Structures
1.
Amino acid sequence: TDEPVNMRLAPKNELLAKAAGYLDTATSLSEKENDVIYFLKAKIASTQEPAETTIGYLSKAIELNPGNKEYYEERGTQLYNAGNYAAALNDFNKYEELSINKRIYCSYKTDIYFRLRDWLSCFRCIDKDIKYWDCSHRDYYLYLDKIKRAYEDQSPTGIRSETTNIIHTLNTLIEEEPAAIYFLIRGYIFEQMNLSIIAIENYTKAIELNINPSICYEYRGWAYKKMRNDTAAPADFKAALQWRPFDESLLEQTRF
């Protein structure tokens, strides 16, 4: 095709557009030894080549321009997808360090900490994520589902050591800073252990601390239902409906 490179690739961000422009105009090897060229090569390689090729191009871009946070973000993502979690974490931390707003890169970091069973960092990351972004009830479902998987993955016999670690970590965090999300997670863990009364106490504390009300009322409603409290359970499901009035699963629980 005779179309210019930047039109053919239709880059969506400014960095790719700049790189495409370099490809159009660069004539010497020295001109091609530019970080944005390697970034563009990495973006192209990510759809065609093994992960190590893409990571290699990104490493070269970082070598030439170590102050560009986008390169660390991209390489961190590639390393994460390749299962190299420790190296990915280093890149996300560097991205964070170079970012003006200092917002933690939680979507990947939370999962990495979860995989590494670093509960202290995992829960702190979740707390920051919730404080920075307007998380929906579905985000909370995802977080709690991860915790549930950690609980279920343990041996059914003997002491559930991971559960002990999780509760101990949450107790420590609550002593340092009683964030609502820590009470929600701790309540959820106790509920998995069939300790509904203690779970309800933690859900109530999360409500008092003004975390996402719908998710707290919903989970407290389930705990009450497990205890066969046919007055408190529907009341909590109705309370959750104030924020999710068309949620059929909640509506169904108000009818029994």
2.
Amino acid sequence: ASWAARCLGRSEGVDAAPALRGALDRPGVALDAAFTLALFDRGASLEFLREAAAGGLDGSRSGPDAVRARLANALLAAAGERRDEDLLLRLAESGAALAEAAKLATPRAADEDVDDSIALLADHGSPRFIAWLLETMTAATTPSRGFAAAHALARITGVPMREFDDEGEERTFDRELFAKRIEAFVPPPGADRLRFGERFDLRAAYAELARSITRQGVRRRLAWQVALLRGAVVELDLDGWIYAQLRGLRKLEGAKANAA
């Protein structure tokens, strides 16, 4: 059924929205349906995702609630709506607790990064997140939380975490120097979403997908961002070789150019 929800997004000449809206009430396929419904009825999809994400913040949440909230969090961050900024910050503050609750519901969650909700703030890219992330990085009580905040800051601002000496050897990460550079960063005027210091748009998503160092988990979320920006399902073999992914990206960019 989950596969069928995705397939509806690829069906030409079919009004898939009614079936997808109906699937939002079915726990096993609801999130996949919301993913695909966003291509047809963005408003209905995002409202469902907001409810699912907020459900994970309830003190009486169950393991399944936490799993749904974490997935909804990822999709809302990718969607990048300004109205979701406060919700995403609340989810980032509760990220570790959500991850622990999710582990009780599914073994697959046990290996996931407990700070993924912090990293997801960079998928959204709001300049508003910079101050919160900087404070979180400097006050972090665990290395993983501090690194997640630093990595999110680098993706939003473009300030590099990695530095090299004159002989090409990588220097040890200097948190204080990195923090000073973040404090000096000035967002482009009028930009409500950033990626590596520039206004986020479809080209920025393509560029990050084309980077060989982009992590696999980030690639999956980027593919959904591209789908939302293009208004169509993205056909990319994200599990295969990077060469095949780059070839698929060139096809997508060519299709957009031909349609223009």
3.
Amino acid sequence: ALVAIPVTVFMAIGASEISQVAFGRGKCDSACVSEIASPLAFYGVAVWGNFIGYLLNRTLSAGNRAREVMIATIISVVVTIGLDLVFLQPMQQAGLALASAIAVYLNTVITLWFLRRNTPEISVRALALQQGRVLVAALGGTVAALIPVFLMPSGDTFWSAVVWLAVVGAVGGVVFVALARVLAREGVRTRADLRRPAVLARLPRESQASVLFHPARAVPRARALSIAAEVVRRLVFDGGARRLERQLRAWRHRPGA
């Protein structure tokens, strides 16, 4: 979220200037840049959904739920094709990008529902709170970035677009980082409270293992999806996908499993 949400906002706001910098040379005139910018904005909106969907798909796969991943993918592909037919005529290339963005978030919702249904241990509220903190910081950065957007003329040449992107990105980025640091302190305090022995003693053993992420303390008969739920929590809060996959494989192949 710390990367996906700012990238989503930046691409949506600066789609025209990004297209100007990347393609606005040679035979690609202003009309060409405009045709590129419209779908780019919708693809930018889909970045956050792609990040979350990737996380959820990896987690379902780790829990041996490839069937659910396949179902969500098939539904998303069918919806994308249908929306392509609806949006292509009135919106041209931008309609295809919009259809893709809608399908991305639909896939995210479906995989999240599958994960929650098969893994009641997972805390959707914790995931929502963490993503919500970053989203609030991104909204603050967006409001700040809109100030130079309205004050500065749109970049219709290469260097003017570069300057526009640099100023908008710097203003929005500084505000976003500042708000994210302030909001992160609350999340760190909440995490520290959970690790206190007095608090852990009141939790079930499954919850204690989820908080501490120590395989030796987990219940021997814990299901694979319980570990997958911990993968989600750890990925969202602390990162380290590859390290978690190694721990998950070690946990599954432990002696006596």
4.
Amino acid sequence: WLQFYITALSFKVFGISSFIGRLPFIIFSIATIPLLYILVKKIISKGIATLTVIISSLCVPWILFAYQDRYYSLTIFFGILMLYSGVSLASKKKWSKIVFPLACTLYAYAHYESFAIFYISLFLGLIFYFRKEAQKILLMGYVASGGIIAGILFAPWYFIMKPLAGNSGFFVPPVAFVLQAIPSLVYFIYSYINLYGIMPILLLPLLAFFLIQDRFNRGLWLLISIAFFYIFLTSLISLFSRSTVTITTEIRYSVILFPVF
């Protein structure tokens, strides 16, 4: 994973200590704040961007994750960079065609499972976001190519290095198992949402109404749709895991959603 190499480089340059190990990730977390402001200002408004930065800077769970020597701050930063460069494709910014696949690749190296879920969620969200663009098919082609490039660049590590570390793997459960698990899965998602407020259920009918009426801010819709698909896919994938960890462990991959809300 990318964080291992970053930590090793930090130790090599500055020496070995707990603070030095955390330093690069603190820097990435700080750098996320202005990037988040630029993103929200672009897709929603300047006022909401300012409010977002204030709330994010005071978000205790985000702060706790921010200084950990793990993938959390990296996935948040590169996820926001994917979002910003992705929506910037519509503005015909040349840099976005380079930054988007680069952000995808670095996200994949930080945490490939989280990247796969986030990329699919972003792809589905951008289908709506670009729906009125004259070159929407071309734009989605750029988004698709970003994922393909990331997959190609990540493949050597996955097929060469990952087997050396072992692999818990996945399995395809029997149909009966899936059918029995669905009610529990739905209840858990509802309980988790109700407890932590990650996806307010009452907003979904309102979201559908504005979507039909075509009056909803497409930037806000993009963020909500990404969160919805991400939580759904993260919960669903736990059904196929051989690991004995519970679905709550899979949900921690949703740390990328902190800036979204």
